[in-house]
Specification:
Number of strands: 16
Shape: globular
Structural class: alpha+beta
Distance between the termini: 13 Å
Oligomer: single chain
Largest sheet: 8 strands, mixed
Radius of gyration: 20 Å
CATH topology: 2,3-Dihydroxybiphenyl 1,2-Dioxygenase, domain 1
Strand content: 25-35%
CATH architecture: Roll
CATH superfamily: 2,3-Dihydroxybiphenyl 1,2-Dioxygenase, domain 1
Number of domains: 1
CATH class: Alpha Beta
Length: 381
């Protein structure tokens, strides 16, 4: 095993020993912080570790995304690439990268691209099952899937496979699943040969949850999301819950199954019946071995007040805002104790331009602090 993986495990072990016992979420309005408005929160990004950033960035650029921000930390030997739809016509065109939804953050730890034994866990098989996929909605799905295939990329499920003819699953270079869904009725786009990537949306991120009731309550009551739609699949023994910020889901659906296809920045929770009855941890969070998916990130209007609100809600912390020297980010341990998704929380501003990284310290020390924290987040030495 690589040294950086051993160090990551050591850090995670140390962090986990500092966790206290879980508390019930408080819902008493009179005791909650009032200077933060959850309706202004945004589901900013989802983080995926990648082996080769050149290959991964090229794949997502082929889907029409572009790098809207890049962070390099050579001293800590990792880089971050933030990709989003930014063409004219995109939902967040021109927005600052911290003031967006639907971003994919790719984390690259130096040297993995040359390590023949390095492979990420894509979250869809054991060991490491938990994270499911990211999803891109497209205008003309037949033409979009053909364009992906013509570029040499593989599919987990082609459009014509199985009974579901309105969705496909492409595979990125690390074999993360990328669901492709249709914004328009598939019956009307069968003969359309063109597709316009400026109309695409990074629609949602899917994670599996142990207990649907606990998880939906957490994302609604604590993180301030709204339940946009529920898809019950009783014959297949699973339900899907789509949550997010912003207006309610449309009552219209192009293909009868996805009235949120035009949106970006949604969270899909998949609950398989019966997992809530299983003892202990059911799904992997991606931050211990085998690593892959890392976290989701919510940007907030007032970080200090938002964290006060979270504290009063009784959340479990991975990192409090007051922990360490880095005072501008926090990590909530989502749905604790039934699931362990890391929810990264930061201000809806670019930290190193609009906020002070710490209360005191030189610019170089602030950058070292930022790099040290992000190294822990990304799973590096």
């Amino acid at each position: 095993m690589n040294n950086h993986r051993l160090t990551t495990l050591s850090r995670l072990t140390t962090l986990s020993t500092q966790l206290t016992q879980p508390r019930a979420f408080s819902t008493t309005p009179s005791v909650l912080a009032t200077m933060t408005d959850p309706s202004k929160y945004k589901f900013n990004h989802s983080m995926l570790r990648v082996k080769d950033p050149k290959a991964s960035v090229a794949f997502y650029e082929h889907l029409g995304m572009s790098v809207v921000e890049q962070k390099s930390f050579p001293d800590n030997k990792f880089d971050l690439y933030f990709l989003a739809y930014n063409q004219p016509g995109a939902a967040s065109h021109g927005n600052h990268w911290s003031d967006r939804e639907g971003i994919i953050e790719l984390t690259h730890n130096y040297g993995t691209e040359n390590d023949a034994n390095y492979k990420v866990a894509n979250g869809n098989k054991e060991p490491g099952k938990g994270f499911g996929h990211v999803c891109v909605s497209v205008d003309n799905i037949q033409a979009a899937c053909k364009r992906i295939g013509d570029a040499g990329y593989k599919f987990q499920k082609k459009l014509e496979d199985g009974r579901m003819r309105s969705i496909a699953f492409a595979l990125d270079p690390d074999e993360y699943w990328v669901e492709i869904i249709a914004q328009n009725p598939v019956s009307e786009t069968e003969k359309v040969t063109e597709t316009d990537t400026s109309k695409y949306r990074m629609n949602h991120t899917m994670i599996r949850v142990k207990d649907a009731e606990v998880s939906t309550k957490f994302y609604q009551d604590v993180m301030g999301m709204d339940l946009k739609r529920t898809s019950e699949n009783k014959e297949a023994n699973f339900n899907l819950y789509f949550l997010g910020y912003g207006p309610p889901a449309s009552k219209q659906s192009a293909n009868g199954v996805n009235p949120t296809a035009e949106r970006e920045g949604l969270l899909e929770l998949t609950w398989n019946y019966g997992t809530e009855k299983q003892e202990g941890k059911v799904y992997h969070d991606g931050n211990s071995e085998p690593q892959g998916f890392g976290h989701i990130c919510v940007s907030v209007d007032n970080l200090t007040e938002a964290c006060k609100r979270f504290e009063e809600k009784g959340v479990q912390w991975k990192k409090k805002l007051t922990d360490g020297r880095m005072k501008n980010v926090a990590f909530v341990l989502g749905e604790f104790p039934v699931t362990y998704t890391w929810v990264y929380v930061w201000d809806n501003v670019l930290i190193d331009r609009s906020q002070t990284l710490m209360a005191t310290g030189s610019k170089s020390s602030r950058m070292r602090s930022m790099a040290s924290l992000l190294a822990t987040i990304s799973g590096t030495v």
